[in-house]
């Protein structure tokens, strides 16, 4: 499975961005997908995950501000990010894993990763 992110960039605090991730496998298969982010010197942080039926799970720091969604017809995953803060500045990664009965935000449980897209929130 290959995944490729896009949509990063620079935005002012309070602004919005939408990230996209195209998967080489059909996203209506039993493929769970998730978004992570990482800043230098810190561990990769799980943000949001979604299964093939559209069930979602969010980490507390982004709950209510970020929305994960998927378009199975386009094999594409999205992350809508609103009310962005400087602390959201990071490299954002798309990841995938095969469904095993639960959603996960653990990086070590995901097998397939994109190359990352940079998000910078600054005034």
Question: Can you describe this structure in just a few lines?
Answer:
The chain is mainly β. 0% of the residues lie in helices and 48% in strands.
Describe the structure.
- This protein is an all-beta fold.
- A hairpin with a 5-residue loop joins strand 5 and strand 6 (56-58).
- The chain is globular and about 40 Å long.
- 0% of the residues lie in helices and 48% in strands.
- It has no helices and eleven strands.
- Strands 2, 4, 5, 6, 9, 10 and 11 form a seven-stranded mixed sheet that branches. A four-stranded antiparallel sheet has the order 1-3-8-7, with no helix packed on it.
- The chain has strands at residues 3-6, 9-11, 17-23, 31-38, 45-50, 56-58, 66-71, 76-81, 90-98, 112-113, 117-121.
Topology of helices and strands:
Elements: E1 3-6, E2 9-11, E3 17-23, E4 31-38, E5 45-50, E6 56-58, E7 66-71, E8 76-81, E9 90-98, E10 112-113, E11 117-121
Parallel strand pairs: 2-11
Antiparallel strand pairs: 1-3, 3-8, 4-5, 4-9, 5-6, 7-8, 9-10, 9-11
């Amino acid at each position: 499975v290959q995944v490729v992110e896009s949509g990063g960039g620079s935005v002012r605090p309070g602004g919005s961005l939408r990230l996209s991730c195209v998967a080489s496998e059909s996203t209506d298969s039993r493929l769970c997908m998730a978004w992570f982010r990482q800043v230098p010197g810190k561990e990769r942080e799980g943000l949001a995950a979604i299964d093939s039926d559209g069930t979602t799970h969010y980490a507390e720091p982004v709950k209510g501000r970020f929305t994960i969604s998927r378009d199975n017809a386009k094999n594409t995953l999205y992350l809508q990010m609103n009310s962005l803060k400087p602390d959201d500045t990071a490299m954002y990664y798309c990841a995938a894993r095969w469904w095993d009965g639960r959603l996960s935000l653990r990086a070590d449980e995901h097998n397939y990763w994109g190359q990352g897209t940079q998000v910078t929130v600054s005034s």
